[in-house]
Amino acid sequence: MTSPSARWFAIAVIGGVAAVIVTAVVLLGIGVSDPSPTSLEKNPNPAIPGDILYVDEASCIVLARASGEARGQVHCTGVIPQLLYFLDDRRIAYLVPNPYPNNLVIVDLESGRELERRTIDQSRTMLDFTAPDGTRIFQRDGARLDLIRDGQVTGTIAFDGLDWPPNLVGWSPDSQWLAFAYYPPRGRGAELWLVSRDGRVRGTLATGVVGGAVAWRFPDGRAWPPPPID
Amino acid sequence: MTEAEEALRRWAEAGLIDEATAERIRQFEAARRQQARGAPGEVPPGERPGLIEVLLYLGIAVLSVGVFALIAQAWDNLASFPRVLAVGVPAAFALLTGGLLKSLGEAGYRRGAQFSWAAAVGLAAGTVAVVLHEYEPLGISRDDDQAAMLIVGVAAAALALLLWALNPMTFQVLALGASLFFLGQAIGNWPDQYSARLAGGALVIFGLAGIALAEVGLMAPRDSSRLTFGLLLALGSYQPGFSDGGTPWEIPAFVAAAALLGFGVYRGSFGYVLCGVGLLFVALVRAIFQNFSDQVGAPVALIISGALLIGAVLLLARLAPSLRRGSAA
After folding, report:
1. Domain count across chain A
2. Which positions, given as ranges, span the membrane (chain B) (predicted)?
């Protein structure tokens, strides 16, 4: 039987060793990487054109400048929309599965007020992630994406520090920019990344994004995805 | 005839001692044994588990099984606070029961106390995990497995250490070893991708620290401590090479096995030798299958593994008697 003082000494040794290891691993961030591009909210990039709709953690639709210069909540849905649309200069829309399938909710962009609900043809809610110019992406190996158009590889985007590429969630109307949802480890909310087609310009437009629904509009009225109603 | 009686007869026949001296030695040893046992031929009181002690173990086991059954069956129907209570109340009950039993002083109750406190370490760790998941304190997301696992590991190890200090017995050492093993895995889980090298490295450091304390007499009981921390050292050195590390990282396992074997023989510890032989056997078999099974084929690898197993058993059988005598001395 050891004496009490000897036992407390043993506790100090093992507890101290454990504390040093845990502190070192946590503070040094061993094996912890942050592959996220620069925050566009903190460092706006005017080179990224247009406006973007996305959904934040409060299930609210946010209208943001793609450059990151401004943003604001438009309408809180209470549910996570499946798809988002710019209908025209004054109206946006989102698709929700309840209370019945393909339920399109139209919202006034200025006031955030719900204008109308209607059921639309399911064929108009099928979204494929082909760019407006016909470009598609394919994962080549690891976290590299090939951009393929007319059967030809027109470019590659590599995501260093990732084992898998982030999820493609949208294109700019001119097919020159891609929007990705990145799901970081440790339970942090998803991030919305904007990446130029050549991969050189990148930015994190938002953190705490949910759902992966994105819509992109240019000042000339072009929008992606195309509106599901005429 | 006992070993001692045979020795006395042999020495008397050889003329080394006379019969009177042999008889005095017999009487001295008999008196010593009686003093230790209470009555000739009986197991000393308190050494043999009694009915109450057995029922106590049964109660603790039933309580623990009940908690797990509740978790398995009704977890989804419970709100957050009842979930915490479902694990926290048994944890507090096990802690209190252990404290009460320890205060009774008898050997059987003390054994029950260490069993109860060992269960309390696991239940308390579960309680911390449930609180983290249900209430997300300190901004720790319930999806943040890395942070949650680390906090649970630290809490379990801290409680196990404290309980060992209050009751330095075998089950407390085992609970400490188990909680340090969990903490080691939590440390390895901290990076974005699980790191077997980090986990194994932490286990090796914990093992070496415990072995050092056991050898200078600060970690008791010594035999349990040697076995527990020897096992941590063995697991930690094995993990990097045979999880994801590849050939260079297999070497620490063989170095640790040799060190445990050599140190075990040097210190007369069967526990270290057992860990060393076990590690050597498992590491050799895994190394053969991992590196050479393509060349030699699975049947030959199995034959080699069987030969290694026989060799390990023979080595243990050869070393065990002398190590036991060394430990007893």
Report:
1. 2
2. 54-75, 81-101, 113-135, 147-166, 173-190, 196-214, 271-289, 295-317
